[in-house]
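Regression test attached.
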Amino acid sequence: MVGKNCFAIASDRRLGVQLQTIATDFQRVFKIHDKLYIGLSGLGTDAQTLYQRLVFRHKLYQLREERDMKPETFASLVSAILYEKRFGPYFCQPVIAGLGEDNKPFICTMDCIGAKELAKDFVVSGTASESLYGACESMYKPNMEPEELFETVSQALMSSVDRDCLSGWGGYVLIV
Amino acid sequence: MGDSQYSFSLTTFSPSGKLVQIEHALTAVGSGQTSLGIKASNGVVIATEKKLPSILVDETSVQKIQALTPNIGVVYSGMGPDFRVLVRKSRKQAQQYYRLYKEHIPVTQLVRETAAVMQEFTQSGGVRPFGVSLLIAGYDDNGPQLYQVDPSGSYFSWKASAMGKNVSNAKTFLEKRYTEDMELDDAIHTAILTLKEGYEGQISSNNIEIGVIRSDREFRVLSPAEIKDFLEEVE
């Protein structure tokens, strides 16, 4: 979710196989660099592998170009990598959030084959996504300060996740 | 001495540690038409002689300065056909970068990749090095930049440089005339004067070619009419 010169990215902590809970501390939001984070919902193994591939590409980019990737550039890269596997895709929906030039927040999401979806306010993905859309839509206000943004994101996450049996076991909220 | 015995194969070092084919490639460059580039504070200018073998050649069909991307241009000294191949490869690489990152390729990255292509041809079987040196001029987020790429694949960033026939005189002239805070129009005048120094015959708007890139980041080759205006200002 976008705030005033800041963004929030949040996820729940459950890893499960249908009704069985495997872990309650599963990390789904990953750091690419100080001002760029990616959240990957969907299949656990694909989330981890995709993250490793993206970090690899970003590190090489940093070494070659001697700078961090801009969020928009990174989103295009993720989209290209996902589309490479068009006929045998990664079962993940990424949520990308970052601060671009002048600390302007950037968020986007895509489907598992790389269709980018930019947004100005918030993006969601996962099993509770429909519920999250509703919660965010009603709780979102433009230009929120970091503290208010944290409250809003946490409340939206908790209420949606409580209504979904496959999500839960705590939450993880990151404000940049 | 024993060097000539090692000049048959590109991929064999001579005892003095040189790859003789690359030396020969540099000689091919050194006998090509003079070209030069100057980096100003607000842009870059590249220029070359355009001496045609006969007055019957249609000079509008000859284009020695080419754009690689909207904000990067290139000029060469040496073999024209080799230049065409490199331009084609570089343009493709620039577009591949754009397709992946939806961002225009930075000048350094394009130079690096072009140099890598030139280096490949010094370490493969059955090929010869490119007989051209390139001067790549561009304007990106790091400001105006000018790079020279040699047949060996090495590249250098220059404030001002020349290549081809009259290189030592041209470089001396540039060293004297270059100032750190030169503006682009001054740089164009200096480029014309430098070309004039070594030119056999009368310089005119039809036998030189000039490419500029300003802070608007659009690489353009100047039309003969524009060159004529600059020539008049110089005289």
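Expected vs. actual: identical. The first strand of chain B starts at residue 35 and ends at 40.
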